[in-house]
Structures are given as C-alpha cells and as structure tokens.
Amino acid sequence: MKTKGIFYHAGCAVCVAAEHGILPALDADRIDIEVVHLGKDKARIAEAESKGVKSVPALVVGEEVFHINFGAALAALK
Fold first, then answer.
1. Cα(72)–Cα(75) distance, rounded to whole angstroms?
2. Which of 1, 10, 14, 59 is disulfide-compatible with 39, CB 3.0–4.6 A?
3. Residue 17 lies in a domain
4. What values do phi and psi take at 9, rounded to 5?
5. Is residue 24 in a domain?
6. Do the domain assignments include residue 19?
7. In terms of residue numbers, what domain contains 16?
8. pLDDT value for 77
9. Cα separation of 23 and 9, whole Å?
10. Cα distances (angstroms) measured from residue 18 to each of 54, 65, 74
11. Record's Gene3D superfamilies (predicted)?
12. Radius of gyration for the alpha carbons in the chain, expressed in angstroms and rounded
C-alpha cells in the first residue's frame, strides 16, 4: 500500500526548486504525492496548518512534516 504525501508550496522560486529537486527523487512506488499550490488554492491553507505545516515548501508524508528550506510562512499566504 502506498503512503499518501502532500507537497505544499506557494509557487515561489524556492518552492519550485524544491519541487523539481526533491519530488522526482521520491519512490513513486511507495509514496503517492499530491502537489498543492497554496497561492492558488487558499482554501487548503487551514488543512496544511492542521497537519503541522508552518512554512512552504513543505512535504507531509503520513503524519510527518518536512519543512524544506524557507520560501514563505503560511501566515503570509492568508
């Protein structure tokens, strides 16, 4: 069974670099990744916060949150 993962980003240069550098390296046979652009889908900011995301880009896999570099705080996206 695949683990669900969500990559939250805001479309900034840091986020795009993380998406292009990290997501292809993940094992697609083990992790099913959904990419969520919070700049375009602001309704999902509360969801990201509830999962423990503090800034983007961030990758949530199962219950674990991995903050990658620093592009923007979630508060700045609201």
1. 8
2. 10
3. yes
4. -150, 175
5. yes
6. yes
7. 3-69
8. 87
9. 12
10. 16, 15, 17
11. Glutaredoxin
12. 12
Q: Identify the band that residue 32 occupies on the pLDDT scale cut at 50, 70 and 90.
A: very high
Per the structure, the count of domains in the chain is: 1
Rounded to two decimals, what is the model's pTM?
0.92
CA distances from 72 to 14, 43, 59 (A): 9, 17, 14
10-25: burial string, b at 16+ Cβ within 10 Å, e else: bbeebbeebbeebbee
Q: Output the CA–CA distances (angstroms, integers) from residue 28 to 24, 47, 51, in the order listed.
A: 8, 23, 22
Number of Cβ within 10 Å of residue 77's Cβ equals 16
Q: What is the distance between the terminal CA atoms of the chain, rounded to a whole angstrom?
A: 35
CATH code of the domain containing 14 = 3.40.30.10
Say if strands 55-61 and 3-9 run parallel, antiparallel, or are unpaired.
Answer: antiparallel
